[in-house]
Amino acid sequence: MEKVAFILKTTAHPTRIAIVQLLAAQESLSVNDISERLNIEQSLASHHLSGMKLKGILSSSRDGKNVFYALKMREVVDVIQCIAACTFL
């Protein structure tokens, strides 16, 4: 239960959930790709991405000037899908 609580606390924002959903569908995405797909400022995407990376939800790699993010903790997708399937929402 502690791991579920950690996941919920770390992803408790619509933008973070959207980022997780994008990364569940793609192996990795750059900050630019994520900000464009979510129609948000790059600085806002970077803020959410770095926070989730610090918590161990995401990993990152650099290719030149681009930083690519990927899901490190795949269980996050299961928790989000389970909550989304609740009939009371």
TrEMBL record:
Chain segments annotated as transmembrane: none
Pfam families, per the entry: HTH_5 (PF01022)
GO MF annotation terms: DNA binding; DNA-binding transcription factor activity
The keyword NADP appears for this protein: no
Boundaries of every HTH arsR-type domain copy: 1-89
UniProt keyword list: DNA-binding, Transcription, Transcription regulation
CDD domains given in the database record: HTH_ARSR
InterPro entries: ArsR-like_HTH (IPR011991), HTH_ArsR_DNA-bd_dom (IPR001845), Metal_resp_trans_reg (IPR051011), WH-like_DNA-bd_sf (IPR036388), WH_DNA-bd_sf (IPR036390)
Protein name, entry field: ArsR family transcriptional regulator
